[in-house]
Fold this protein.
Amino acid sequence: MRLRNIPGSREVITENRWCIQETQETKGTWHTIFGNDHPVRIEIGMGKGKFIMELARQNPQVNYVGIEKYSSVLLRGLQKMEEEPLENIRFIRMDAENICEMFGREETDRIYLNFSDPWPKDRHAKRRLTSRQFFHRYDQILKKSGVVEFKTDNVNLFDFSLEEVSKAGWHLNEFTRNLHQDQHMNQGNIMTEYEEKFSAMGHPIYKLIASR
Ligand code: SAM
């Protein structure tokens, strides 16, 4: 999702009370940032934020951090927060490649990846958020019992991700090739913007949950 550049979006993000700056020292301080000891969960590539905001609404006893690479996209989420402020969310505009600079060891217990960019060229495989290089990063910040949850409509990216879970030495807890028809895995499912769009077009939605 790359919206047209919106002039001034970087400045809005720098001054926004819900946004943590990439330059800020956050490692090991997330409980202080939120002012409580609730678990911290991260969505990488949150887009306009529909999914993470609904999660935060439903689970006030959990803290959420939304990461998004582009300010023009993140801006849409911030606009929604002005209408309905949620105390248990923060946002960071950053490339998730640097995630280990923002979170310390075991600072999160769940990472959500929804409809991540497929990077179809082989030479770009390590940029995929489910590559072994990214699992290595998640390994450094996830609690021992933590999980990564991944949804997509892209079968090639899904098959690649299944292989990478195993090559990274992780364990596949469960997976489905048709989430919306899977009574067990679909329970409590919150649809993302892309999920609504692609399932309306008849695409099956794939999901996996992985842990160490
Ligand atoms: N998750 C949303 C959904 O399901 O509707 C948006 C999906 S969109 C295809 C992927 C999003 O991930 C885009 O907004 C993109 O900017 C963001 N993204 C891709 N790579 C990223 C990275 N390395 N770090 C942070 N955000 C990233």
